[in-house]
Design brief:
Layout (H helix, E strand, L loop, with lengths): L1 E4 L7 H17 L4 E4 L7 H5 L9 H12 L2 E7 L7 H9 L10 E7 L7 H13 L3 E2 L5 E2 L6 E2 L2 E2 L2 H16 L1
Parallel strand pairs: 1-2, 1-3, 3-4, 4-5, 4-6
Antiparallel strand pairs: 7-8
The protein binds flavin mononucleotide.
Length: 175
Amino acid sequence: MALVCSTSRQDSTSAKIITLYRGLLQTNHGLNPELFDLRELPTDFLQAILYRPERGAHAEWAQWQARVDAMDKFVFVIPEYNGSFPGILKCFVDALQFPRSFRGKKAAMIGISDGTQGAALAMSHFGDVLNYAGVTTLAFRPRLIDINKYWEGDCLINPMYHNLLTEHARQAVAM
Ligand SMILES: Cc1cc2nc3c(=O)[nH]c(=O)nc-3n(C[C@H](O)[C@H](O)[C@H](O)COP(=O)(O)O)c2cc1C
């Protein structure tokens, strides 16, 4: 299983959720998931990789592609950006080989936002992308609204959100 931090924004709340979720997978399920953090994409991603037929020869990108190829299940933490998912997530998918990267695989999503949607539309939009790519998605998609109101440092202090993430991890492992 792999966790995807779906933004390249520094000081990202999505990354804090990923850390928490990774802990749940380790503690409750004995799993040590791979991490795809879009903040760590190669610095020349836009110039030398995206839409470039020769990108397979890019050593750093070849490792990203190989790691995706090796995964059969992904959990995406998706922040709401302008009513949808971050553009860098679409660029990431567009740069990966089609159809082999995702076809026949599984994915689950968790949405976060400052507003009241909890990235509901964002997950719906990205769900369509995943379905097009041949991915089966988990129906349970927690929407963590007002996400930045509930932190003390790196600690999420909303018990309901902890419950939702715990249940999501259970279902994602079982799917
Ligand atoms: C570019 C951008 C666009 C955003 N658009 C929305 C939005 O449409 N609706 C909303 O509720 N929050 C919006 N937000 C707030 C984010 O959803 C919220 O701050 C979330 O924590 C961002 O995730 P991140 O910290 O992982 O980047 C936006 C934030 C950014 C940076």
